[in-house]
From TrEMBL, chains A, B:
<dbReference type="GO" id="GO:0004500">
    <property type="term" value="F:dopamine beta-monooxygenase activity"/>
</dbReference>
<comment type="subunit">
    <text>Homotetramer; composed of two disulfide-linked dimers.</text>
</comment>
<keyword id="KW-0472">Membrane</keyword>
<keyword id="KW-0127">Catecholamine biosynthesis</keyword>
<dbReference type="InterPro" id="IPR036939">
    <property type="entry name" value="Cu2_ascorb_mOase_N_sf"/>
</dbReference>
<keyword id="KW-1015">Disulfide bond</keyword>
<dbReference type="Pfam" id="PF01082">
    <property type="entry name" value="Cu2_monooxygen"/>
</dbReference>
<dbReference type="InterPro" id="IPR024548">
    <property type="entry name" value="Cu2_monoox_C"/>
</dbReference>
<feature type="transmembrane region" description="Helical">
    <location>
        <begin position="21"/>
        <end position="39"/>
    </location>
</feature>
<dbReference type="GO" id="GO:0042421">
    <property type="term" value="P:norepinephrine biosynthetic process"/>
</dbReference>
<dbReference type="GO" id="GO:0005615">
    <property type="term" value="C:extracellular space"/>
</dbReference>
<dbReference type="InterPro" id="IPR000945">
    <property type="entry name" value="DBH-like"/>
</dbReference>
<dbReference type="InterPro" id="IPR008977">
    <property type="entry name" value="PHM/PNGase_F_dom_sf"/>
</dbReference>
<dbReference type="GO" id="GO:0005507">
    <property type="term" value="F:copper ion binding"/>
</dbReference>
<feature type="domain" description="DOMON">
    <location>
        <begin position="59"/>
        <end position="175"/>
    </location>
</feature>
<dbReference type="GO" id="GO:0042420">
    <property type="term" value="P:dopamine catabolic process"/>
</dbReference>
<dbReference type="InterPro" id="IPR045266">
    <property type="entry name" value="DOH_DOMON"/>
</dbReference>
Amino acid sequence: SMQTSGSNPCSCPSFKLREVASMYFTMIAVFLVILVVALQGSAPRGSDFPYKVPLDPQGLLELSWNVSYPEQAVNFQLLIRDLQFGLLFGMSDRGEFENADLAVLWSDGHNSYFGDAWSDSRGQLHMDSQQDYQLLAARRAPEGLYLLFRRPFSTCDPKDYLIEDGTVHLIYGILEKPVHSLQAINISAIHGGLQRVQLLKPNITIPELPRDMKTMEITAPNVVIPSQETTYWCYMAELPEDFSKHHIIMYEPVVTAGNEALVHHMEVFQCAAEFDSFPHYNGPCDSKMKPERLNYCRHVLAAWAMGAQAFYYPEEAGLAFGGPGSSRYLRLEIHYHNPLVIKGRRDSSGIRLYYTATLRRHDAGIMELGLVYTPVMAIPPGEDSFVLTGYCTDKCTQLALPAAGIRIFASQLHTHLAGRKVVTVLARDGRERQVVNSDGHYSPHFQEIRMLKEVVAVFPGDELITTCTYNTEERSRATVGGFGILEEMCVNYVHYYPQTQLELCKSAVDPGYLHRYFNLVNRFNDDEVCMCPQVSVPQQFFSIPWNTFNRDVLKSLYGFAPISMHCNKSSAVRFPVRMASLPKKLPAVGK
Amino acid sequence: SMQTSGSNPCSCPSFKLREVASMYFTMIAVFLVILVVALQGSAPRGSDFPYKVPLDPQGLLELSWNVSYPEQAVNFQLLIRDLQFGLLFGMSDRGEFENADLAVLWSDGHNSYFGDAWSDSRGQLHMDSQQDYQLLAARRAPEGLYLLFRRPFSTCDPKDYLIEDGTVHLIYGILEKPVHSLQAINISAIHGGLQRVQLLKPNITIPELPRDMKTMEITAPNVVIPSQETTYWCYMAELPEDFSKHHIIMYEPVVTAGNEALVHHMEVFQCAAEFDSFPHYNGPCDSKMKPERLNYCRHVLAAWAMGAQAFYYPEEAGLAFGGPGSSRYLRLEIHYHNPLVIKGRRDSSGIRLYYTATLRRHDAGIMELGLVYTPVMAIPPGEDSFVLTGYCTDKCTQLALPAAGIRIFASQLHTHLAGRKVVTVLARDGRERQVVNSDGHYSPHFQEIRMLKEVVAVFPGDELITTCTYNTEERSRATVGGFGILEEMCVNYVHYYPQTQLELCKSAVDPGYLHRYFNLVNRFNDDEVCMCPQVSVPQQFFSIPWNTFNRDVLKSLYGFAPISMHCNKSSAVRFPVRMASLPKKLPAVGK
């Protein structure tokens, strides 16, 4: 409970709410100070706030929320289990404490205050001229203090964060001493952290579930969570023998009570059908003891990350598993995030699959969009936002998609460590029509499968254009495309139905044009970059003397040169589409 | 007066004002309809609305306004001399009727309504969800109906125009028939026009004027305005013999009553001192009868454009004229804009100079910033916003400015027909510090000398960076720099004191690097562009096969290549600064 330094240290704190009367046709905000007494009351029902994440590793701060699309606002419920002299909660571009948009609860030891504030580039707090975090209630309960507040997606305050689809970096800070004013707080100096969530969860109608539905739990067998910050735990599970083809129609997380703040994300992979059997294993994924063969268990069946709820397939489709041509072996991978290095904690978390033998109309499939894994797509060093684009062209969809089209209902974005933004758009007849999925605050550390707000229909002749933005400010040499952790990818795994043979629809720049680029840079800079054909593309990129001209011309090349198209069937046989000239610059969606 | 189609056609119209109660913390606007009776009253005093322009060529619509910087709002007074069934007034990027932000007064024949609306890309009107034009009053007077309304500079409505410094393109339209709803109006189909003004006039403290101040009127001698849309009229005036050195400390327009809508802008130029005498002349500037020698009268003494008020020099400075080394001959140039081709109108407009023999502390000077007039700076065809930048470098200011610096107090931006935006910023120690003058809606048809909101101090070592944005969408070949009307310039004439020897501080790209560019484009495109040295730079630009790559690489070149600096004394002798490497990209002002 909140401590006060007055004569009656056990009394309930009083709350002053600062609210803003938004003046009619003027920019001058008038503050009204309204006194509200904290109510002793029961905690709000969980169903009011369906989404929940712990903010700190100990779970002392627990955030629940709901989204009102008609009102374009998010309602937050923050449970503070051990309130001291206040709390900061807010959002910033990538989780920084500087230039953040904050709701602040603070106490001077006598009274408590709530306000909408922002932190400057030095972390110093300032009151917003317009108060957009609206305090709705403050309730005391045995487990702690509940703060209920509300925030529109978009405010007109330039100091405010714009809540958009995709990842939101939430930050929190704990005030351990009384503060006499908001201006006295410097967020950089206080204890706090960050948590990534998808705040704007889509409003999905849950499809009716069949009567014959069964469940299967793929869970860790009471493992001791290692006392280290990061562990990827691998556990092999097995389907029953003669398990016929079923459809997974839903799955949900099973998180051991008390470990909510430790279980960061979990995935269930199916192994390759080429092998008759896989060894049992239960241990860290990076252990030398892990059998090699487990690397052949990479086909995603289910994926969950903190803050996500149950995943429902659309009623026309299910994800096939079991039956001939499908491996009986599954690999569960759990990412434990244990920054406080808690020792001896046991965990049996995992994923519960809901499946049916009554197959739905369509098998669901996963298609890979974006860039081919090739070094010809590279990012110069020292870039704060370099953009690469991969195309799934009209020619490829023309050949590979059924006349009735496919329906994309979910998407998982993927890059390596330099990725900062990812977006896929659908274009038809040379015009952008629809955003398939977009994350302007993408983090490679938070890769969820996300249900789309609306199912996207893709027809033969449509184009799917995936654009990734990278930050290489900390790097001293070029970052080329590839599989390595310091190489880059630009991928959107789209979940769709009905399944087709097209498993991969990606592009890269034409290598001949890249050769012309190396040539040009060489001549323009009077440099002796080795142009010998035996030198690899990465080596050529590494030898470029980077400057704004060479950087800009590489950008121009990627925007101009023809592309090489990869339009592959599941069997790794390519559809006969290879070269394509680059699609023209398209007018943006909604213009 | 407004006509109504009811039983009493002569009654005064009633006005319904639509106002918005901006809802507390929601995006939903609730419309309150308030009935206000139009008052018979006297016209507001002119001093309340110090700035005035006619909107239409007949002057039936007259706009006056004032600016409240504390409230960040403009108060408008619109006099409608012959109201029919309503009026549209608003603003758009460059004076288009589509995508415009509009205040609309309309009558259905019974009642009149006022609202804030916007026009879509087809000219169709829609009511804004947020009402930001606030009607303050509607008054009947013998001369017509006065509408008083107010608009904040910036609203949060994305459909609204942002009122900024520099040119604002005002548009108007006249409703000649009753309309039953705002949605029934398509602005593209109605009679209207555009007028350019600087809405956000700076709030200048008028300096005290000396007792010995005299006035001199340089006015047209009762000329008959030609019955054609555009006339530039030239009239030669002469200072008295033995007119000693004086300081012009103020000037103001003298516009013949009734011709307010015809006199578009006026300038007084001083002739070159090299010639002992100049012929008399009174006629169109483009006449074959105009003596050649008048082309040597180009030194600006005073300039006025529609909507501008008196121009005051700062109290420390005056513009020198008269005395030895200064020509006695002046040329008055008046731009008559007569789109209705009115015949036989007589005019004696001109400029009244206020001057004093008691010289002020400093002579004022004019310095030219931006780009050298050279074809090496070119704009590819088909560009909607191509940017060129000219530098007045630290090295030049270091050599040419006095240790105490100079003070820039006014600025006149200049480009030819493709110019769309111009901005000059001051940088110090590699960081942008201050915007000297900025016009995001610049028009080559509206080139005023504008007083700066704040005087800008420039010290040795400072840089002045002038950036122009061009539109060449309608052109099929490259636009090169030069003097021709279809060539381009990027210039900011800054008015400052104390006068120095530095008359010109401009740059262009290093010609050697441009040669490398032609070479590169040639090789990359496998084209046979003639690289022979006898081919001129314009010819080489005209022969480039323009595509996005060649365009982007030209941009990159201009951003990367070293510059050639022109740092010239009045005597056309250059200060010894020639080559400079390009200043690094600077962080923007206020970040």
